[in-house]
Amino acid sequence: MWTNSSSLLNMVAFMDHPGFIRRSLAHTQIKNIGYSTDVKRWRKFSQTYTEDIQHVGLLATVLLAANMSFLAIQSIDSGPGGLSYLPQKFSYLSLLAALASIVMGLAVRSPRLFTNHGPFYSQAIILILGFPFELFLYSILFFLLAVLVHCAKHKAMVQVVCAGILAMLMLCCLVIYWLITEPCNDVDSLDHRFTKVTRERKAGHH
């Protein structure tokens, strides 16, 4: 875990959302019976995923409104260079990413039953199901860039420095969180998870 750089990248860049989907999908597959999906586990994963997507869609809608309000600010709307004004570009990118997140979330909000047909299909479904969340994350990033660049252009250095400090704190917290925790599927019961860990530790002592 400590040396798994891809896991750390998922945590820092995507809040471990692809990892959650990968582990959850793996848990729905029945091993040693060819390619087969446990329907009960899939339904549980589907319910968790649907709730997650609903929250993402709601937050993306809020971010969409925030971008519209930001673009309506006079200093942004009449910024130098028109649509080539960098904060305006970032805000439009954020707006488009939020829209795409909402639309994609509506399309996959109730995942169709998936049967694993090999590594390529597994990666494809992970990307597809994770797309709404990743679009939402980058919509946030573009919006923050729009605000920060606008502040920097107007010499509001206090806000820029504070944002930099908060970003570093968040990054440090994510790395520390990754180091001191282990992934646990939301579709797993905690009792099963910790019972398994306890057994592994006992076996290690013997």
Describe this structure in words.
The chain is mainly alpha-helical. It has one domain (5-154). The chain is 77% helix and 0% strand. It has helices at residues 5-14, 17-28, 39-72, 74-77, 86-108, 119-153, 157-180, 190-205. The radius of gyration is 21 Å and the shape is elongated. The model has no long low-confidence stretch (mean pLDDT 77).
- Could you say which structural class the secondary elements and strand pairing correspond to? mainly alpha
Q: What pattern of helices and strands is seen along the backbone?
A: HHHHHHHH
Sheet-strand content, in percent, reads under 5%
CA radius of gyration is 21 Å
The gross shape turns out to be elongated
Q: Helix content range of the residues, please?
A: over 70%
> Which sheet architecture does the biggest sheet show?
none
Task: State the distance separating the first and last CA atoms.
Answer: 23 Å
Q: Number of DSSP helices?
A: 8
> On the 0-100 scale, what is the average pLDDT?
77
Low-confidence stretches: none
Write down how many β-strands occur, each being a DSSP E stretch of 2 or more residues: 0
Count of domain modules: 1
Features:
206 residues; 8 helices; transmembrane; transmembrane helix; membrane; PGG domain-containing protein
Brief overview:
This protein is mostly helical.
List the helices and strands and how they pair.
Blueprint: H1 5-14, H2 17-28, H3 39-72, H4 74-77, H5 86-108, H6 119-153, H7 157-180, H8 190-205
Helix pairs in contact: 1-7, 2-3, 2-6, 3-5, 3-6, 5-6, 6-7
Keywords: Membrane, Transmembrane, Transmembrane helix
Organism: Scleroderma citrinum Foug A
Transmembrane segments: 53-70, 90-108, 120-148, 160-180
